[in-house]
Amino acid sequence: MTTTTTPARRPWKTAFLAGMASYLDAAVLISTGIALVLYRPVLGIDDLQFGALSSLLTFSFAAGALFGGRLGDLFGRRVVYSVTLVALVASMALMAFAATIPMLFLGVVIAGLAIGADLPVSLALIAEEAPDGAKGRFVAFSAILWLVGISASNGLSAIVGGLGELGGRIMFVHVGVVALAVLIARLSLPESPEWAAAKADDRRRRTAGDEITLGSLRRLLRAPFLAALVATAVFYAAWTIASNTMGQFSALLFVELGGTTIQTFGLIKLVNIPLGLISGFVFMRIVDGRGRYAWFVVGAIVQIAAFGVPMLFGGQLWTLMFMTYAFSVGAAFAGEALFKVWSQELYPTLLRSSAQGTTIAAARVVAAIAAIFIPTIAASDPHALFVLLTACVAFSSLVGFVWIRRLPKAPAEVVTETARLADAG
After folding, report:
1. Domain that holds residue 327
2. What is the reported pTM?
3. For this UniProt entry, which segments traverse the membrane (predicted)?
């Protein structure tokens, strides 16, 4: 039985177009956080509404990831990532032209559902199209695009931040235009051959009367996949509280605690572009090698220091700048990028998108609950906020190094069967 797969004809094209889900994920998160700050004086958004909008975006993302991931395993990658981008474009138009707070609430719900459903499906497609021995590198490339999405949104805020409400509307237009361009470009991508082959085998098993088939959710709740599901969910939930705070509320922290403006905040964040990109490319080089976890430890220490400094010295401009830059570097090696790689390695093809959607959903629900209270905590007790964020990244690092590092990858017989069918097709 062969154990090799035919390399995708254009894996980097697939990695780029599917990986743009990560760009859009970051852009939606950052743009919403900044635009809401700019909308506040005009639309009268108070602290509770600000937190509720941010939380609802995250809750909607969680629901989208949960159902979108499963739909991607059942019906294919292509149909899901096409429908989701249509919805995302519509939501950005709604938020860009919002005249009332209820319009913003509707917009964030649609946006969260859309990008949440797109992400696990697109990441699964990247892994399935990547050549053997380089899957980690290709999946990690999506983290580069995630950083580019953050950088582009922050860079745009430096340009339009002084325009007030109009600047916020431009932030949403940017996301909508990019989503539309990606939607058009993705029309040239075929369905994942690996998914199609695995689905065909699953149908044969069902016809033969197998009690539990390759794509059955019951397999996800049994060994060895249950441990992987719980471990990655716990890791990502703890880490996402910190990451989500950096994405949705860093503008608020810089304005309220650092005493600066949105324009200055945008300029400060521009320094993250070279830092994040360099760190991301280094991670791409090492992720498929044996030194992955040595770099993980380094990244974990840097992440803990990122929030530890403002915890010890208070939330002021220089500590917030250190937090921003250190988190950008540390997260490249001990954050979302590695979570995405784990999520491809630990599950077989017909459970990959479902598992990833489930863990992303769980993490975003936790982050959404936290987001309700973070603006209030930041205003009333900033020290408590930084203690919380430090604890979150420390705990996620412990889970990653002690637990996830020791988990087995997807059983060889499952991967080999999928590979054999793909070759035969």
Report:
1. 11-197+216-424
2. 0.81
3. 21-42, 48-67, 79-98, 104-126, 138-164, 170-189, 223-242, 262-286, 293-313, 319-339, 360-378, 384-404
